[in-house]
Amino acid sequence: MHLSKLIISNYRSIKELSVSFEKGKNIIVGKNNAGKSNIIKAIDLILGESSPTWHKSENITANDFFNGQTENDIYIFCELQRDFEEELNYEEINKCYGFKIFAEKGNYVRIEGGKGFYNGIPIRVPISTKSIESCRIDLQAVMDISEEDADGKTIYINPKLQNQATFEGQFQDKYHFAYGFRAFENSQGKFSKEIRFFYRESEDVNWVMAFSASVRNELLQSAIIHSFRDPANELRINQWSWFGKLLKEYIKADDPDLLSAFDMLKTASNGVFKDLQEEINNSKVKIAFPDTSISFQFNPDTKIDIYKSALIYVNDGFNSLLQDKGSGIQSAVIIGLYNYYTNNIAHSSSSLLAVEEPEIYLHPQARRVISNRIDDFLQGNKNQVIITTHSTEFITSAHENLNIISVRKEPQVGSKATNTKFDTSKEKQLLVKTQNSEMFFADKVILVEGGDKYIVEALAHYLGKHLNPDLGENWLDEQNISVIAVGGKGEFSKYVNKLNDLKIPVFVLADFDFFLRGLPRFFSDLSYPQGTLDELNALKGKLHLDTYVLSKEILNQIKTFTSSFKETGLKVDESEIKRAFKEKVTAKRISHFAEDKQTLIKSYLKRLEKIDLFILENELENYFTEECKLLCKGINGKEEKPIFIVSQLLSDDLLIDKLIDTTEYLNFLNHVSSK
């Protein structure tokens, strides 16, 4: 069982939001205040601890309504999906309270020696998830049908009486389960909330509706760890919390050793508090009712609930309570305990762990430790994890499938979410470099092939400081723009594809070689219309890039020459000559073409700028000034030279326009800053 879909309307920073989750690891990324935490809070409202006091708890206030608009109800729809081979644990499910379902009541069935019951056929209700609006409208319509106003159209599902309508009979062939939540301001000005339970066989049929949601943690056990760690809250000890169930499993109230320890502690506490008790009970100050006395002791008197008084101590060189330790230890302990519980105690087939900012207050190595703990919990995607993070440590992975959810806050409409998945080995290559993960947190991304990254960042600083002070020298960071080196012209399309999925604006800056040899594949990988490829091929046809026909004639002449040359007894090695002539033209920059061809190319490249694709007229090294070439003498490598150039700017207080012809780069950066 896993959480597959969440639809939210009018909750906190979210006016309308729909997000899909996958089995395994789901990473929610976005800037501060984008609304990531509100997604976790919505999940907690539905799938968190399901105690009988849930309806009475005052966890909905005016601040929970989008823009404080309490006239618009909050709606949350939360869907779970069960695998076909997954068995439900009815031993646990049958411990839940029964519920009434919306149904056409049938005949009264008499049972010998017991109470009878009404059979019936469920009235199926539609809830469309094709759009947020359709889901909200459908959910409102079915939740307006109250149990009292159903005109007798209900039947009771009783888990206690197995000869009546049972949970087994209801759930055995069902693979989709859902919860509908509504919060509203009632006529007395107070806030009310209600939750309904839905289930069905498949996506092709409508839902059976239950008027209450007593079955929740029994289908999917969940643990929610919020960004401000609070072990006392996250490790609540009661009979409904996962931690309470863990302790109750191991602490037996009738254990002889435990009873003996109680007696010894009680005797000791009576001795410790003897003088205080006598003083208070004999005092003229009235402490209690007449003829009553009070006593003090160190342990609760009710042995049945002794597990509720358990405390966790952690010894990391200093033995103290868990709540007195740092956030990292608290997170590791909570995740570890929950992992133990789901492996050894929990009766649901799968579990959900949601963690807000697991990296909080942690150094990089400790973040990786927590990341490993989370991976252990997944158990090969048996369980589900949902993380909100600002840290690349939780995104950089080549071993598991990731579902990345980008959350952004847009004016007037609030938080929005978009998904992209990393399933294949080629897609996962993007995540191996830690620096690449930065792009998921950006508002705009600039993609370059390699060493250009350092030059672009230096030029952006130069532009903002010396040419356009209104931008400011740190405008890339202030506008939340990342510059990412993709590692080769064949890699651009992979990055663009994922950034398009997440609706993050992306700008590509490539050298002229990309136009000659990389652009067709780029258009093809990104499924550009055939007309785009046809236009490119027509232009390249006019450039006569393929010299193979001419090479063939020359090779024939070489063959004739070498044949006659061999008669003299001398040997000629033809292989190198043939290889050179069989290769395509080795043009590297636009100046290798005649003037009329340059005009065609420049016109075409200008049109590409409209789709945020900028192709330079040369390679990077062709933009180096003579001063730069002298400085770089003896420096080799495509990345080493840009790094060296940037280091010279820092150490010698040079301006980059002394080392680089900046014209084309600045045109590109002005375009990015203006979008």
Explain how this protein is built:
The protein has 675 residues and is α/β, with parallel strands linked by helices. Among the domains are: 50-216, no CATH class; 255-309, no CATH class; 443-544 and 587-674, no CATH class; 554-581, no CATH class. Helix content is 36%, strand content 21%. It has 23 helices and 21 strands. The strands form five sheets. It has a six-stranded antiparallel beta sheet with strand order 2-1-4-8-9-10, sandwiched between helices. Strands 11-14-15-3-16-17 form a six-stranded mixed beta sheet, with helices on both faces. A four-stranded parallel beta sheet has the order 19-18-20-21, with helices on both faces.
Question: What is the gist of this entry?
Answer:
The protein has 675 residues and is α/β, with parallel strands linked by helices. Helices cover 36% and strands 21% of the residues.
